[in-house]
Design a protein that fits this description.
Elements (H helix, E strand, L loop, with lengths): L3 E12 L5 E11 L3 E6 L5 H8 L8 E9 L2 E2 L5 H7 L4 E4 L13 H12 L4 H14 L5 H6 L7 H13 L5 E5 L7 H16 L3 E6 L2 H7 L2 E6 L2 E7 H6 L4 H20 L2
Parallel strand pairs: 3-8, 3-9, 6-7, 7-8
Antiparallel strand pairs: 1-2, 1-4, 4-5, 9-10
This protein binds adenosine-5'-triphosphate (ATP).
Adenosine-5'-triphosphate binds next to helix 1.
GO molecular function: ATP binding; ATP hydrolysis activity
Pfam family, one: ABC_tran
Subcellular location: Cell membrane
Length: 268
């Protein structure tokens, strides 16, 4: 029998001040090893959904309701300490802007080793060796040099890979990736997609937030389509791509194909 990894029930996000609801009682679930793509146009509530699950929304601004059971524990209700020990270890994230994942004034190596030491009972040398291995695993060959570098000394694509290394280091059960390829060039995008494919092959579940049908098509086995904070449709990638039921999904797919063609045309 398949094992539930994440079960989201009636998740909602509201702006405290205006009372506006940005995510409207959405429900979905993920099985172990599954890759789910959340797709929708700008402003549809994809990022809010990912951030709500990771508890990254400022509680002074946003109110989050509903349940998000991760391995049976409600992420939204866990005590801060419990949640912190889960985030990074069992649950990690890859964001659109890798600069937000790293502290700007601390060398990459220090950030990786501190993360490892915070979660595992290992010494400094072991942490250093593991961090090096994690960087090499994502094809960052000059790993020693990268360990000595500050975030601003790396290219966008390299930093994105370093962030993937950081996310993978503790062998999480689930990685939430938000527009992870949006801020890099086409070559880096291709490489990052390859890294995601490797992550999938290791049986780690992925929740991919993207506006790009191409990214979702390359990676996801299940798709959830969002609009105005609601789920318009969800199902296997095959069913969504081959027989979309909703007009909005068709429009999104057409827009994505058009963008792809335009990108291609610009490269000539
Ligand atoms: N800090 C904020 N304060 C108030 N409203 C916000 C804030 N951030 C986002 N929103 C609103 O929440 C809604 C959902 O935004 P969200 O960022 O989740 O969209 P998205 O689907 O991820 O789009 P994009 O791909 O452009 O990031 C939008 O209407 C947006 O204007």
């Amino acid at each position: 029998m398949s094992e539930k990894l994440l079960e989201v029930r009636n998740l909602n996000v509201r702006l405290k001040k205006s009372g506006e609801t940005l995510v409207k009682d959405i429900s979905f679930s993920m099985e172990k090893g599954q890759t789910l793509g959340i797709i929708g146009e700008s402003g549809s509530g994809k990022t809010m959904t990912g951030k709500a699950l990771l508890r990254l929304l400022n509680p002074r601004v946003f109110e989050t309701g509903g349940e998000a059971l991760f391995c049976g524990r409600n992420l939204l209700a866990l005590h801060e300490d419990e949640f912190r020990s889960l985030r990074g270890k069992a649950l990690s994230m890859i964001m659109q802007n890798p600069m937000t994942a790293f502290a700007p004034m601390t060398r990459i190596g220090k950030q990786l080793t501190v993360t490892l030491s915070a979660h595992l009972a290992i010494g400094k040398k072991e942490a250093y060796e593991r961090a090096l291995r994690a960087l090499r695993d994502v094809n960052l060959h000059q790993a020693e040099k990268i360990m000595r570098s500050y975030p601003h000394e790396l290219s966008g694509g390299m930093l994105q890979r370093a962030m993937i290394a950081l996310a993978l280091m503790l062998r999480p059960k689930l990685i939430i990736a938000d527009e992870a390829t949006s801020s890099v060039d086409a070559i880096s995008e291709e490489m990052i997609l390859e890294e995601f494919m490797k992550i999938r092959a290791q049986g780690i579940s992925l929740l991919i937030v993207t506006h790009d049908f191409g990214v979702a098509a390359a990676l996801a086995d299940h798709i959830l389509v969002m609009k105005d904070g609601c789920i318009m449709e969800q199902g296997t990638a095959r069913s969504i791509f081959h027989a979309p039921r909703h007009e909005y999904t068709k429009e999104l797919m057409d827009a994505s194909v058009l963008a792809e063609v335009n990108n291609h045309a610009q490269s000539f």
